[in-house]
Amino acid sequence: MGDELGEGLALARVRLACGRMVGGVDAMLEAYRFGVAEGSHPEPWTPEYHREAVHIYNESLPWSYQRDVARLFRDSENAMRGRLIPSGLAADWAIVTAYMREAASSIENWLASGGSGLHGPGPARAPELTVENPRVVHWDGLAALTTRDGVLRLQRACVAVRQHFDAEAPPSLEASEQLMLKRLASGVPIADVASEMGYSERSMYRELSRLWDKLGVSGRAAGLRKATAEGLID
């Protein structure tokens, strides 16, 4: 069960990382609409782009936040490595994992160096987050490092990968289904659960069969393991 729980948390972090990337590219595209000029890096998932982008992060983001972002991207890229995916998703997958890998590496290297890099000492460390100093990412500056076509390609890749993981997300359960699972997980016999819920025992088995199909499992033990691992029951 521990492995299944770990897998569920890893995939949740991947979905979070993809969501952040989609939000970021949307903001960069908005910057182009407001007249930001394109930059010299054709694609925003290359090491060269991220070595410059990290300077922009440091202008406004506290190092603790940058560290958390690097960890999120590193963990997500590791979770995506070696997974079986549809062949049609391969190019998008490669772009997203490259972005995560290079973003994490650039931030990790920047922080390890104390804020110095190819361009000499970095800007002063941004203040920690407070009400007076909210987090503000300079998306216009990031957009100015790359091209609109490159950002659009990254957007398509992020959306495709996020949709893939959203399809793997745990199904939503009705209240009656959650109650069935909770009672069974507590060790209540199926006949007693049926009586409590107003079903005949035969009807209860039919309801459970539909529930196992919904969860994509073959029976009670696997269903309870999956429901617990994915947080479908307390």
| Count of DSSP-assigned helices | 10
Total domain modules: 2
Largest sheet: 2 strands, antiparallel
Helix content: 55-70%
Plain-language structure description:
The chain is an all-alpha fold and 234 residues long. It has helices at residues 2-33, 47-60, 63-80, 90-112, 139-143, 148-167, 175-185, 190-197, 201-215, 220-229; strands at 116-117, 120-121. The protein folds into 2 domains: 2-167, no CATH class; 175-229, Arc Repressor Mutant, subunit A (Orthogonal Bundle). It has a two-stranded antiparallel sheet with strand order 1-2.
Q: What are the salient characteristics of this protein?
A:
2% strand; Arc Repressor Mutant, subunit A; 234 residues; 2 domains
SSE inventory with pairings:
Blueprint: H1 2-33, H2 47-60, H3 63-80, H4 90-112, E1 116-117, E2 120-121, H5 139-143, H6 148-167, H7 175-185, H8 190-197, H9 201-215, H10 220-229
Antiparallel strand pairs: 1-2
Helix pairs in contact: 1-3, 1-6, 1-10, 2-4, 3-4, 4-6, 8-9, 9-10
